[in-house]
Amino acid sequence: MLLGAALVAVGLLTSSLVGNQIIAALLSLSLFLLLWIIDHFGWMLPDPLDALVVNLSLLVHFTPFATGSIFLSDAGFFFSVALLGLFLSVRALARR
Amino acid sequence: MMLRSPRLAFEAMLFVLALGLGATAAFGPLDNTFADQLYFGAWCAAMLRFFSLALRLPLHLRPALGRVVSPAIVTAAVALAVLSNTAVYRHDVALRRYRQRPLHRAARVADDCAQPSARCGPDLFLQQQG
Lengths: 96, 130
Prior knowledge:
The structure holds 2 protein chains of 2 kinds. Helix content of chain A is 82%, strand content 3%. By secondary structure, chain A is mainly alpha-helical. In chain A, helix 2 packs across helix 3. Chain B is an all-alpha fold. Chain B folds into 2 domains: 85 residues; 28 residues, no CATH class. The chains are: A mainly alpha, B mainly alpha. Strand 1 of chain A pairs antiparallel with strand 1 of chain B.
């Protein structure tokens, strides 16, 4: 549910930024895929940046849920991404 | 004093909830795990309060002002999200919810190993396999 809320918020933000529905859908899917696999690229970065980029990954935060461990930081990540996406969507819609 | 709107009442409730949970976690006689969960509840209430306050920021600004203020608001929101995630990450807590379902064969081997006279290890496991 938390993952779904975060993805819906990011998709809503993309849809509010782009006028065309098809482009918004493709951009959202690309963003989801990028956020899903970004940890594979994050390990290549230098020290301060790697932790930041790896922690952007949805897979890194979702895997503990799938194995039965609930980390509060993972729940907080999805929660804050959902809130941030909704807030930025409101700003983007108001700008139109 | 009566609060003027349900939204103000909701924000006040979130503020009180965040303060109360944080104070209880900090000063209450609780074990560490429960206190960490209370801290997380306070964090969630504070984030919801920030979200509610951020929605009240002016959406339509004069063009000259908007060119400066709108990117600043977006940057502040992203910075707040990053900082709050960093805080909750540094104070991380794992709530293990493994289901207690050991394999029957492995559980039987472990039970046999608990007896002093029993053979233990791969021999017993292979014997029970066969």
